[in-house]
Design goal:
Elements (H helix, E strand, L loop, with lengths): L1 H22 L27 H11 L1 H10 L13 E3 L5 E9 L21 E9 L1 E10 H18 L11 H24 L17 H10 L16 H9 L4 H4 L4 E5 L1 H15 L11 E2 L2 E8 L8 E5 L3 E6 L7 E5 L2 E14 L10 E4 L1
Parallel strand pairs: 1-9, 5-7
Antiparallel strand pairs: 2-3, 4-11, 5-8, 6-7, 8-12, 9-11, 10-11
Length: 369
């Protein structure tokens, strides 16, 4: 009881002192009299006016790692595109994916005429497909109120991590902003473009126009009759295995046994296929990445590709499909402060292409839709 009385007395004394100071200050003579309400500043609030300068300083110090992360992040973590494609680095404009396919030309000797030249014509098939790097741009705007809320989320996260052994427990807010917010979103956007984009350099400009992605390349080859897509219809656990294998069976025999062969399934098809496998093998557990194989072909790995939509099944060699990303020249990312907003601008390039598509009518790619 005594402590509460002392605290009330101290509070009244502080209020009187403030009122007295205000009354003695001619600049505040017009202020209305009454109870004084004290507002405390938020604990550990973020000074947004210096955010652009802090981001610039961090970028300049860690420039090489940041650019490398944007280029290689698509090939790391869950659903890494390393499962789907072979990566090419250091390409800024275009890259010629040349190949030469040759059919059989060895023949039996004719005992009565071993010296006669009897050539096989038209069996050498040169091909040169071009991987074109397409420019993309990222313009990011942080409004002060949004960045303050992000900072509060960061503080909450750090309180949780402080009780753990996580290496991120000492992460600064600028590091959090770069790696957990900006880079993750950039990776998600680029991954979407790799499968769903159609290059179109006209307005309105958008993510889904920055390149020719996987499904656009496949669609163009179907139109050009280089690929004959198999119509699969509705896929259920009752027919999934048969339908997926019907696409696989159209591959050239030599391709079926290639070490880097993948069978990429979109989400509905993979769901049906994996459930069918569980039923056939009497399993109730889920599958880890790489465990599903085409029957009798342990080299043919079945993968789940969530960004495939129209293409239900795609069978091809990973070593024939090339993806390249370039995060722009070092020092080209910019951060600015303007009108209570922090702005970020980045540039880069990305490209995807197959080295060969069914040369000479021999299927090294099989598609089911």
């Amino acid at each position: 009881m005594r402590n509460r009385k002392v605290k009330r007395k101290i509070g009244r004394n502080i209020e009187k002192a403030i009122k007295s100071a205000l009354n003695n200050d001619s600049r505040t003579a017009s202020l209305p009299q009454g109870p004084i309400i004290l507002f405390a500043a938020p604990v550990n609030s973020l000074n947004t006016s210096t955010l652009a300068a802090q981001l610039t300083a961090y970028y300049q110090e860690h420039m090489e790692g940041i650019h490398s992360e944007l280029e290689l992040s698509l090939f790391e973590g869950p659903f890494s595109l390393e499962r789907n494609f072979t990566t090419l680095t250091g390409i800024e404009d275009e890259y010629v994916l040349s190949s030469v396919t040759m059919s059989s030309f060895i023949r039996q000797i004719v005992p009565t005429d071993s010296s006669t030249f009897n050539p096989v014509g038209g069996e050498i098939i040169p091909d040169a497909r071009i991987l074109k790097m397409r420019d993309f741009q990222g313009d990011l705007q942080f409004k002060d109120d949004e960045i303050q809320r992000t900072h509060l989320m960061y503080q909450s996260r750090m309180k949780q991590l402080a009780k753990s052994d996580s290496p991120n427990k000492t992460q600064t807010f600028i590091e959090y902003l770069f790696w957990e917010v900006i880079m993750k979103r950039a990776k998600r956007d680029l991954r979407t473009a790799v499968f769903k984009a159609t290059f179109d350099n006209t307005a309105p400009y958008s993510l889904l126009k920055i390149m020719n992605g996987f499904e656009k390349i496949i669609s163009d080859e179907i139109v050009a009759t280089a690929i004959t897509a198999i119509a699969l219809g509705s896929i259920t656990p009752a027919n999934a295995i048969v339908k997926v294998e019907s696409v696989f069976d159209t591959l050239d025999e030599a391709v079926k046994t290639a070490d880097d062969l993948i069978v990429s399934l979109n989400t509905p098809t993979f769901t049906a296929y994996s459930r069918a496998e569980q039923l056939s093998l009497g399993r109730n557990s889920t599958y880890s990445e790489g465990q599903l194989k085409i029957a009798n072909f342990p080299n043919a790995t079945v993968i789940h590709e969530p960004d495939q939509v129209a293409t239900k099944v795609a069978c091809y060699r990973k070593g024939q499909a090339f993806l390249s990303t370039h995060s722009g020249n070092e020092g080209t990312w910019e951060f600015q402060r303007f009108n209570k907003e922090t702005k970020m601008m980045l540039t880069g390039k990305i490209g995807l292409q197959f080295q060969t598509i069914n040369p000479g009518g021999k299927n090294n790619i099989a598609i089911g839709q």
